[in-house]
Every structure is written in C-alpha cells, then in structure tokens.
User: Which sequence fits this backbone?
C-alpha cells in the first residue's frame, strides 16, 4: 500500500486582519531606531517571484499575498503599491484604513514617497531586498521630498515578527545531463566567454534560477519552482564557488561539480566576496542586492552592474530541453484532457466547486506520472472569480459552479523534463452571445500570436498588439501582458523574453513563451486562453529575410461551445481545426474511456 | 514683372573626395593637442536634425551628408557609424580607405571606441555637441578600452576648416497667435506648472523647436525648419530670457514678448547661466549640451537632467494648429494632384528626370500659395534610386525615368499654418506582378495603421507591427520606423511620438504622425506610401475603454495601377475607396483642367 500523496496546494486564506497592529508595531520599532519610514517590498534576497516563507514580510505585515507589490510605512501614512493584476485583490486583503492601496498605473512607490515622505525625514530600507537601481530610485524619491534614504543592517520587520519561519534548507540535487542537454563545465565556459567579452573578471550569480541552470542543480527552497537559494562566484579563471542556504546536498551533485565548482555554506558568502579585491565584478542589475555591491566594493573590487549573461543563455532552450518540454506537454495534455472531460461531467451533475476542480486537476496530473509540483497555485475562477486575473481560491472564496458561468482554469506543472502552463476557459451550461463574442475575440488574438511570422530581431513588444487588435476593434482590452517566458523545469515565469509592452528583447529560436490574451468583465466572468509556444525559424518561399514563428507546445482543446464561427476568417478557422487535429492525434493514444470520447468530440472541426 | 522665385532646393553634390586630406589635417591637430582621437557627431549645439552650415563638421570632414551619424577619428583608424537609412549612401560618399563605414545595427560608436581606442589613450570631444548621457556613454566606452575621455574647449575640426561658414543670423519674427492658438504667456504658465510639479526652479530651453513653440516665434537659421537658434532661461518666477544667435529680430516680436520675456544676444548666455546659483535647473536630456550642465553647476546650480516639458506640450496640437494643418494639407494636396497629373503626362512623353520632378513639384507648391520652404529636400528616386531610403538627387545621380520603373517621391512643405510630408510611389509604364504584390502589401500595412483602433495609453511601438505584418507574411520587411511625429509649421520630424520600435510614449489626441511603411528592392526599386495622420478619440459602440484612432490629414490618390485588388480584403478595399472619395471631394473644387480630369480617374473605386 502506498502512502497517500501529499497535496501540493492548500486553500487556507493566508491573509489576515492584523495589519493595523503589525504596522503599529513596525512604527514603534522605526521610532526607536530613529527612522521615519521603511520600505517593505514583496522580495527576497534574490528578487525572486516565489519567495520562502521567512521572506514573506509584506504578507505578514499587510495581509496582501500577491506576487508583486511594495509597501511604504511612514509615521502618519502607509501605502501598498500594486500592479494591475492586484488592484482588485489588494483592497480585499488589506485593511485599507491602515494602508492605502495605490495602483501602480496611477503612482509608483517612488512617486508616493516623493509626495508623502516629507522634508528632513529618513526613509529606511533593507539592502538585501533592493537592487542598486532600485535604491537609486528610492534615493531620488526621498531627495525630491527633501528627505534622505538610509540602509538598515537589520530588517525592522523581522524584530516585530514573532514566529517568523526559519530559512528554507531543501534538498539540493543534480539535474541529469540528459535533460539539461549540456554539462555545467560547458555552460560555465560559455559564461566565461561572455564575461571576457565584457571585460569582467568575475560574475556574482545572484539569481537562483541562473544558479540552477549553470550548475545543473535543482532545489526545494521555495514553492513551485525547484530552486536552491544561494549565490555563486564565478571567476574568469579557476573554480567557481557556490554558497547555498541548504546543507542537504546530494553527494552526487558535489562530486559531479567538483572539477568546476566547490559548494560552501551561505554563511561563507561574505568571505567569498572579500576575495574579489581588484577584480571587475559583474553583478546582475535585476536580481543582485545592493548589499552584494557594497561588499564587493568594500573588498576593493569594482562592480559592473549589468546583465548576468546566464539569463539570456538559459532563455534559449537546447535540443534536450526542447525534447523534454515537448514530452512534458504531451503528458500534461493527456492529464488536462482527462480533467476537462471529468469537469464537463461534474459540472453537468451540479455541485462542482472551484477547489474540487483544483484537486481533481492535481490528482489527474499526479496520476499522469513524474509530477514534481504544480508550477504555480492553480487559478480556478468561476463566474465573477474568473475576472480576478490572479485569483487564488480559498475555503472562504470557494464557489459552486453554476449553469451560465464561465470557468477559467489556469494551471501548470513541474516535471523533471519540463514546465507547463495552460489556461482554458469553459462554458458551464449555455453561454450568452456576449460571452461567445468575447471568447472568440480572445481566441482570435491568441490565434494571431500562434500564426505570427516576424523577422529575426523582433521583440515581444512588437507583436503584443496582434493579440489585442480583435478586442481593440470592439473597444475592449486586457490589463496584462500577452505572454511571459517559461523555463525548462525551472520558473514558469522566466525572463528576459516576454510578449508584452515591456518585452524589449529579441525573440530567438528556442525561447518558450506563453500566449495568453484574456478579457475580464469585472463581477461577472473572466476569459483567458493560454498555450505555451516555442520560437522557431520559419522558412517562407521567396522571402528575403530570416523569419521566425511559433510552434505551439501545449496540447488541449479550446471550448468549441464558446467559439462564434461567424467572427472568424478562413485562416483563423483553418488554424483552429489544424490545432485540434494535432491535439487529437497526439493525445488520443494516451487517453481512453470517456476521456477519449470527450477528446474526439472536443476536437471536431469548426468547419467553414 | 515679378522677380524670379528663388529655388528652395539645389542639386549640387555636397560631398567631396577630400576626406583623406582633411582627416590627416585633423589628426595633425589632435597630435599637437596631445589627444589620441576625436568624436565628430553630426550635431550642432542643439542636437538638431537640420544643422546650420557652420556645424556641418561631419560632412566637411568625411563627405557624408546624411542627417545622422558619428565619426570617430583615431590615429590609426577611423569609423563612421550610420543607421540603416544610410548604409548604402555612406559608403558611396566617403573614402572608405580613410574611414570605415560601420552600420549602427552591427556596432555602436561606443562599441567601436571600446574596441579600437586602446589602453591609456585619450579621446576628445566637444562638450557643446554631446548631451550628458552621450558623454557618459563615451566615458564608459573609453573606460572599457582602458582609456579616458577629455572635453576640449575648442573643436579641433574648426581650426582645420578653412572657409568655415559664419553662424546663421536669420530674421526672427512672431508666429501669429491665430495660428499658434495660445499666447506665449499662457504657454509659459503651463511650462512653469510642469516645473513646479517636478520641484524645479528653472528651465534651460536648449531645443530651438521648443523655443519657437513656447515664445511663438519663428526664424530662418537652418534649412527647411523655421528655427531661430538660441536658448532661453525660464525661471519659475519672473521674466524669461532668450539668448538668440541672430540680432535681426522683428521689433513686433520683442514688443509682444516684453511682458513675459527679454531677448539678449547669444553671447550673454554664460552670464545668464551664472545667475542660477542655488537653483534646481531642468535641462533637457535629449538636446541640452553637457556644456550647459557644466556652466550651471559651475555657477552653483543643481542640474536635473530630464525632459523639457515643452516637448510633450508641443506634440499635442491645439484646435488652431489642427485647423491650420488641415488647411495646409488641402492646399498641399491640390498642388500634389497637379504634380501627379503632370508627372503622368511627362513620364508618358519620355525624358522625365528626377530633378525635373523635384522642380516641378516645388513650382506647383509655390504656385499654390503661402509656401515658405520645403519641409525637407525632396526624395525623388526612380528605379534603383528609389531603394535608397533617404536618397537625395544630385546632378550626378540624376536619372531619366523609364517605362517599367517605379518612381518614389517623398516631399513636404512648410506653410505658415502647417507642415506637410507625403510619399507617393508611381508606376511608370506597366509594373511587374512583383511590384504590384509589394506595393499592395505596403499599402495594406499603411491602411492597417490608418484603420487602427487602440486604447488610450497605447504607444507607437505597440502598433508599428500592424504596418509590417502583410510584408512579414511574405518574408519581407523595411528597415525604418513606420512613422515620425510632425510639427505645426515646425520640424517635419518632431518627437516624442513615433510609430516605431522606439516609440515609447503614449499616443495622444492632437498628435500628428506620419504613416509610411515601405519596401526596398536594392538596385531595382523602392516603394513607400506616406500620409500624415492625426490622433483622435474614437467612439466605439458598446466599447468599455476610451479608444483612439487616426484621422488621415494628407489628401492625394494612391496609384491604383499598382494595387492588386485580389490581395485586399473587403475592409481594406472599402477604406481605400472611401479615402479616394474623400480626396476627390476635398480637392476637386481646387483643381481644374487636366489635373481635375486626372483626379477623377485616379480616385475611382477599386470595387469589390
């Protein structure tokens, strides 16, 4: 008899109503320290998206559990600045009497500081939680208010936080070369060549994703992304040194890395940085804490704040990673098809809840094999909950799905060979003509990205509007990017590639991105359709330039009940039919019984 | 009898073959000054696009006459870095034995410096010709090479340049309030409010376009743009001070400005800057020379390098400017129609040359009335010359148009009420199927921009690809932006709005832009289709968001002989037919005889 599977997702509401008292405690601590305010970003020491429990200071302080945001606590005012994803969630989670929620589109944290800090006031910050650029912005903001910024050696939130969790120390193991596609030694040689081209003598690796990629290791320090928290120092010559928070390290990894790198405890990092006297040291501007810069400079090194070259290398997947990702998507697609077939039946029976859907989907994925984790907490939003872009169902918000609802399920999985991320929006009962119109427009945008052909050098920002034009024509839009980069058994949100206004790097063959336009009718329903796509070369007959396009990796039917064929042109219909035929061909051998019958029906041609 | 009209355009080749000897002379001057290299940007003291003759140092030195580029002269190597518009022209104009032409897409001037300057070498620059950011980039480049950067008090090119022209001193006159739409006093109040919001005590206006707009003045110091070169200091309180290069100032202007501003000679600028002790002074990062920053700082002021707020205000045209621009386009459209009718007939007779077309178009515009200048030298490129994006015909390159050619004419005019810019590509004789295919794809991109609907806040970068998608689908593209901003009786290239990868500001109602996709078959033909468009609010029935679209300002037919109707969808055909009907309705009353008959034929419907 096997042990019952440990569930990967829970549904307790992590928010709380203790914001006012905790903020009061923080204010008292600030007064004692002679500080007039403090910045509490949703950040850990690596600027990661998923942070360990001991770094969830913003959630502990305010109750806000979103993945991005920043609070500024002053003596007489406090603000929580959140982006468009969280403008509905944040006011619902925090005590808005104690903290004003400020939409980022209206005011940045820096602009709020400039307006509220006040002359001669001192604003504190934790130098492990901000990059040098971030500190420079805070400095300018404080200066505009006539105040100053001060680094604090200890984070005052921590002294107020009774029962703060311990730092994580998960198992660190080797990522097999068959899946990684390249040895750590070969990867480090490429990184060193990039350092040489930029006249740098060493690299401080501050991004745990880059650590995982470069050294072919995986960890378990944060939820949903197999990261080992830590740093590395990679000199142009000689062995690299890793500084890992965990000491639970697979000896096979230590042995495999031995020729190229040694592993030391995280506590040795200061000593490691102190050896960089005289060196020109590259520090990643996006993830490197200003504390690292200060330590290198104190040791007599010069810091070149720029890009960790690993970020761009990691983004372009090699043949082994692509093959693994394709396999992961076939496996995941079969589980998703079983889930969708189950969901149709369960919804028809009545009583289906959002949490039941999350658990069923997780169970189907676990049964499909090789599941290591979900790649993020499943977004399971029916009816009005679907309009909350980053909704996370809790016992309190859980809702029974009703006829006439749309049901938005955005989920993904971590397999050893790849990371998945898929959104399907489903009709429960009979959808309204408006729902079909909106769904079809979102689908047209999604298909426009899928079919896009563009020259080498094109950025995601340049094609983002292809996904929006069908909505724009109707006076509609959605308030998030069209796509984010995705890792290979790494983060489901990986840069630098994006299909968004902010996607300013060129798309390159081997990059994986999501393609997920949406439409949100606040208080009524949400629509999002998401596949992952792989950038690939695209040969065009009689074309003159090297062109690129996308291979769709995700395999699962769209909901044909929500498609209004009259809105589609012939090219769009043909693409959808061809995709459905491909889904059927790939997945039919993997599913049977009612799921197989469901798949056959769901992938029928829309026709002309 | 009236005096013969002075022609606005000449066709002498301003380039020369004296590059090697002039570069040798500069190198001797550098050696004497103990400097190892010098940067020669195509720039004047205001970073203007059109520079006065005395600032044409790059053309004097190298022979390259493009509107952008930068030479770096070292003892043993020299490079001219040019953007995609000039990668064909530059090697044809300069002695590539003496100067290597480097495409910007391959290497920036800074990267070239980093590679070639050499350790311990000193690179000189003229602090009046570089912005603080530009100097910082040069400093980093020199540092990467192990060298240093040094500001030179005198530009060493000037000491080598025998017969260097005197600085311009054209007439400066008032721009009537009826055309400007707002008094200088009202404009300055808006600028001061913007300075207050940014906590600045004063603004140094370094951009002559902004000087012209803010003080409702126009000058004659550079070709094609009615600028008076100079600066202004605008304090938060008290009168502004203008420092103008010219002393030929209309007393009416002096009197009109007297309540808000005094006019001083350019030579008094240093004295003016010395009064800014203790002030926080905004300096425009795009046009303000580092020399200005140094002078303010030497006087004890603090420089806030940012945006001159006038740039954004000037970009949004008021009702008077829009009405004037519409009137200018009707007048210009009638002249263009007369020209196109003439050109069809002249081409049929044979012997038509590119220069003859330029002169005829200028004559038609002059006869149309109110012509102050062309807004830039007409691009009149037949056959292979059409593929040179910024071709400028000279007596040497002039070409007789032949049957089977495409003829690309890109031109514009300065009228007191508005600035125009239009490109039409014309079939001479019978075009090939390939030409019709390419023309139609370019037109589809142009129509896609014309029809675009997008939410408030959308940038030009987001919609640029709409103009490219029909070409991309065929593996084709063009190497320039889709559109640039245009002034109101000011520069034909005005920022910050652009429809291009680099167009990162939101499009706002009242902004004027060009819409000019193209296709260039090197050595064979060029196609470009350009109208100016005005951003306007666009009401959408049942839409949820404030949307914007474009009103097309330019009025002139496309060449229907080059349109392949089978490539167009119904929406595209309807838009073209409606536009042609509008052109006919607007211009038919203004033209008669053969031009009227030509217009009627040229604007017939394409039909279904």
Assistant:
């Amino acid at each position: 008899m096997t042990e019952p599977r440990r569930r990967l997702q829970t549904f307790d509401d992590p928010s709380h109503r203790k914001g006012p008292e905790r903020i009061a405690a923080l204010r008292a601590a600030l007064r004692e320290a002679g500080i007039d305010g403090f910045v509490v970003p949703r950040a850990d020491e690596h600027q990661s998206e998923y942070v360990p429990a001991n770094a969830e200071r913003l959630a502990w302080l305010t109750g806000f559990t979103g993945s991005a945001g920043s609070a500024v606590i002053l003596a007489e005012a406090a603000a929580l600045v959140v982006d468009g994803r969280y403008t509905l969630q944040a006011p619902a989670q925090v005590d808005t009497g104690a903290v004003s929620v400020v939409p980022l589109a209206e005011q940045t944290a820096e602009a709020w500081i400039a307006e509220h800090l006040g002359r001669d006031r001192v604003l504190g910050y934790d130098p492990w939680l901000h990059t040098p650029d971030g500190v420079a912005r805070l400095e300018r903001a404080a200066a505009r208010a006539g105040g100053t910024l001060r680094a604090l050696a200890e984070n005052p939130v921590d002294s107020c936080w009774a029962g703060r969790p311990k730092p994580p120390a998960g198992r660190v193991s080797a990522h097999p070369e068959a899946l990684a596609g390249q040895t750590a030694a070969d990867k480090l040689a490429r990184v060193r060549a990039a350092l040489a081209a930029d006249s740098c003598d060493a690299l401080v690796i501050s991004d745990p994703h880059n650590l995982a990629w470069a050294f072919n290791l995986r960890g378990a320090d944060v939820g949903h992304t197999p990261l080992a928290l830590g740093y590395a120092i990679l000199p142009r010559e000689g062995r690299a040194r890793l500084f890992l928070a965990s000491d639970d390290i697979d000896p096979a990894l230590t042995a495999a890395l031995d020729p190229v790198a040694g592993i030391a405890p995280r506590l040795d990092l200061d000593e490691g940085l102190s050896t960089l006297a005289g060196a020109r040291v590259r520090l990643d501007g996006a993830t490197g804490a200003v504390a690292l810069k200060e330590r290198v400079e104190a040791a007599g090194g010069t810091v070149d704040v720029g890009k960790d070259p690993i970020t761009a290398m990691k983004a372009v997947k090699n043949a082994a990673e692509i093959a693994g990702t394709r396999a992961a998507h076939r496996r995941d697609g079969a589980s998703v098809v079983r889930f969708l077939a189950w969901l149709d039946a369960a919804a028809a029976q009545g009583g289906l809840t959002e949490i039941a859907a999350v658990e069923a989907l997780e169970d189907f994925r676990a049964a499909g094999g090789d599941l290591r984790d979900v790649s993020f907490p499943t977004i399971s939003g029916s009816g009005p909950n679907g309009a909350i872009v980053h909704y996370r169902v809790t016992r309190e918000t859980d809702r029974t799905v009703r006829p006439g609802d749309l049901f938005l399920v955005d989920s993904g999985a971590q397999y050893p060979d790849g990371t998945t991320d898929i959104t399907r929006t489903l009709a429960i009962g009979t959808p309204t003509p408006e729902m079909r119109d909106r769904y079809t427009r979102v689908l047209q945008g999604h298909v426009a990205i899928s079919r896009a052909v563009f020259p080498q050098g094109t950025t995601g920002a340049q094609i983002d509007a292809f996904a929006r034009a069908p909505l724009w024509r109707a006076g509609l839009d959605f308030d998030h990017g069209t796509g984010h980069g995705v890792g290979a058994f790494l983060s489901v949100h990986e840069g630098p590639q994006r299909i968004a206004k902010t996607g300013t790097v060129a798309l390159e063959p081997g990059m994986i991105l999501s393609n997920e336009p949406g439409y949100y009718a606040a208080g009524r329903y949400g629509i999002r359709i998401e596949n992952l796509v792989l950038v690939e070369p695209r040969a065009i007959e009689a074309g003159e330039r090297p062109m690129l396009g996308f291979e769709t990796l995700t395999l699962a039917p769209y909901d044909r009940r929500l498609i209004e064929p009259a809105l589609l042109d012939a090219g769009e219909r043909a693409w959808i039919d061809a995709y459905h035929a491909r889904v059927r061909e790939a997945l039919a051998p993997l599913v049977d019984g009612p799921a197989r019958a469901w798949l056959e029906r769901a992938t029928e041609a829309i026709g002309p």
Q: What stands out?
A: Chain B touches chain A through 30 residues (CB under 8 Å). Chain B has 20 helices and 28 strands. The longest helix of chain B spans residues 319-349.
